[in-house]
Amino acid sequence: MRFVTVWAVVVVGAFFLSGCATVSSIEPMGERPKQVLQAEWAGTWLHQDHPVAIRVSDPQQGQIEVAWVEEKQGALTLESYQVALRESGDWMFGNVRDMDQPGRHYYWGLVRKEQGQIVIWPPDPERCAALVKSGVFPGTVEEGGDVVLDRLTPEQVLRLVSGEQGGCLSWTEPLVFFRLGK
After folding, report:
1. pLDDT in tens, 29-42
2. Which contiguous run of DSSP H or E holds residue 80?
3. CB 117 within 8 A of CB 179
4. How far apart are CA 78 and CA 43, in angstroms?
5. Are 141 and 129 in contact (CB under 8 A)?
6. Three-class secondary structure of residue 168 per DSSP
């Protein structure tokens, strides 16, 4: 799933290309930047088989950098993405800008940070598509099933994660990262 690789490969860095439909938005998800502490986020994290390094680049603006090594064309390559952590109410979202797309949409996921653990719930493309088609959320469903959400009100953002009308997240398939060291 593209989101999984870009968030597991992206901060939790896992949303890349694997052919599945994606959910993105024209603006970062969340009303305001989430202030973060270097001591709580910086370090080495592990997701199943993908270790990533996280560095806090701007604590006041909730900006973190996520990096990992992957093999490309027979050589090891360092990959790195900026992730914007934003909040709405008690919810925190991680946003990664798609630098390969015209219009540069944001891929996002709901993030919960606990002591030594980061859990990310990606959006469910099928559920989001149904909610966009029914008019619950503004946006478009593109050929192939990709969903692009338009600007959401704070109430719509909370409805997105609350489970009203089924919500829009894949609650059963979270990405879980464990801290290995600082």
Report:
1. 999 999 999 999 99
2. strand 75-88
3. yes
4. 16
5. yes
6. coil
Q: H-helix or E-strand containing 56?
A: strand 50-58
Q: Which residue has the higher pLDDT, 90 or 19?
A: 90
Dist CA 79 CA 101 (whole Å): 18
Beta carbons within 8 Å of 113's beta carbon, 6+ residues apart: 40, 41, 92
Distance CA 55, CA 44 (A): 9
Among 13-22, 85-94, 139-148, which is the least confidently predicted range? 13-22
Q: How far is CA 145 from the centre of its chain?
A: 18
Which pair of structure tokens corresponds to residue 142? 């593109």
What is the predicted pLDDT for the residue at 148? Answer: 94
Q: Which of 122, 115, 160, 90 is nearest to 4 (CA)?
A: 122
Within the chain, where are the H helices?
Answer: 2-8, 38-41, 125-133, 154-162
Burial state string for 51-63 with b = 16 or more CB within 10 A and e = fewer than 16: ebbbebeebeebb
Please name every residue paired with 91 in a beta bridge, in sequence order, or none if there are none. 88
Count other C-beta atoms under 10 Å from residue 25's C-beta: 23
Residue entry with tokens 């409805």: 159
| pLDDT at residue 153 tops 80 | yes
- Furthest C-alpha separation in the chain: 48
Query: What gap in Å lies between CA 174 and CA 177, rounded to an integer?
Result: 10
